[in-house]
Every structure is written in C-alpha cells, then in structure tokens.
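Hi P.,

Sorry for the delay on this. The queue was packed all week, but I finally got your sequence through. Input first:
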Amino acid sequence: MHAVLARFGVDEPAAVARTEHGLLNRVWRVDAADGSRWVLKQYLDDAGHASSGAIAAQHATIAALAASGLPTVPPVAADDGRTLVLHRGRRYAVFPFVDGAPPGPLSPRAAAELGTLLGRTHAELRRIQPPVLDPGPHPGSWPTADPEQTRRTITALLGEARARAPRDPFDALAEQRLRERLVLLDAHAHRRPRGAPPAGWVHGDFHPLNLLYRGERVAAVLDWDRLGVKPVAEEAVRAATQFFCAPASGVLDLARVRAYSRAYRAASGHSPEHLGAAVHRVWWERLNDFWMLRWRYARRDDRASELFPAAAAQIVWWCEEYQQVLDAYVN
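Then the structure:
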C-alpha cells in the first residue's frame, strides 16, 4: 500500500482504515503524516467496469462534471500523470477525502434540490459524453423481466428458504414474501412494459450511500463505477424510491417525491411522459427482482439482507397505490 500511495505523492500514512463503502471494491481512508486525508480505492470488479480504459474514461467524466460546478470528486494524478496505478495486478486510484455523511430525512426543499442536482447531472452528462444511439421506445429495445422466469426463480428461492438450517425469522419472512409475490405476479403479469423512455448516460448507482451531505447540502456524489448508458429517467425514479421511503415499511413520502420529480424534470428536460414510462418500468423491475435473496441463498452473502424487509414491503404497497405513485412523479 505504501508503494501505491507514494506513486500519488501521498505522504507516509499515519493511519489507514478500511471502510465499508461499496460492495464491489476495496476502499481505505488514509490519514497522512503531513495532515492531509485521502481515499485509496482498489478496483476489484472485473466485469467490464474495471478495465483500465473504462476507469480512465470514468475519471475523465468525474473531472469534467466537477469543472462544470457539480459536486464530484476527481482523482489525483500519479507520478506519470495518469489517475490509475497498476500494482501487482490490481488497479488503484486516490481521491481527496471529503467530510460529510449519508443523508438523513430530507426536507421538501432538500428533496427538490436533490432532484435539481440529478437533473443537472443528467443534462451535463448528455453534453460531455459521447452521443448515444438510442434504440427507441419499441418493445425489446431495453428488455424487461419475464414473469415466467420470475416464477421459476421464486420456486427455487422458496426451496432454499425452507431448507435453510438453522432457520431464522428472516427465512420465514422471505418465504412469506415469496408466496405473496406469486399472487402479485398472477394479478399483474399482463402489465409487462412494452417500451422505454429515452436512453443516455447515467451515474448508474445514485442512492443515499453514494452521496455525502453537510447538513441538507450535497457535498459529494461518489462511486461512479456504474457510469453507463441506460434509460435515463429510470435512474431518477429509482433514486426517489430509496431517498424517500420509510425504513421499515418502504412506503414512499409522495409529497417529497413530487417536489423532487418536479425539480428533476425542470433541470433535466425530461417530460412527464418520460417519467411515467420510467415509473412503470421500475415498478415492474421491483416486482420481478430478488437480488437480495439470491445473495443470501445462492452466494451465502448476507450483506444485502437488511435491505430486503423494506424493499419487499414497498412493492406490495406500490401495487396497491400505483396511480398515486405515478401521479407524484408526473404531475
């Protein structure tokens, strides 16, 4: 580690602490002997996002967004002028440390400011990134979950939950929610989305743990590892379901969603129709998604299990209140 830090001109570390930030990479906070503070990141995700070219492009985008006045944190350059160092087969970058904390509950004003921030980010990405050839809204352009495959997934997960030894209350909850989801699928299978809103560049992982706040102001947008091309308005819809949900029930604060979405549309240029299509696609995605349970039962990894109770409750509520949720995003 010392050899890597030296490449970036970081003074001898006085203290190094591994952080819990991120599921895909390793991150350390480094307090240097000269009083400066840094973040050292080791890229582990090798599924295309962690190639040297992809990371270099990601770093250039972060710097361009910062130059436009957005709260991103560009990496520092190493001794060869690059922002990425290869050491013993692994890629590393160093970022300035930013004081801040994940957001607590946001006021309606702060919710609107968040919508403006994400809208400005999407508009700026549209300006600085390579043009996107959008396949358009026709069916198949951006695939959606197949409910028959979802039923097969549920059947397999039910078997895993019932066979778990020793069983705990989480397994009972998982079994209850999986049976419940089968009923919801039967009721809504005919509503599979047929198209998508316009595609473009997105952050890719815009949620509360990837933003640092000071008070009610965003100090930094972190973790651009999933920068890529997707239906843009879906990121706005997905983010609101995470920022404005009750921790236990998953119920959305629709007044804050409305303030956020209105500000997002004004800053991004996306229309109510775009947001409406995105709401439907994200709702369908959540109805068919079980990644937290797959981590627990297939990968034996419980890091995401604490997210499941609220997420599972939210989709039940969303099915009941679909029109109210849609209205909050588009009106």
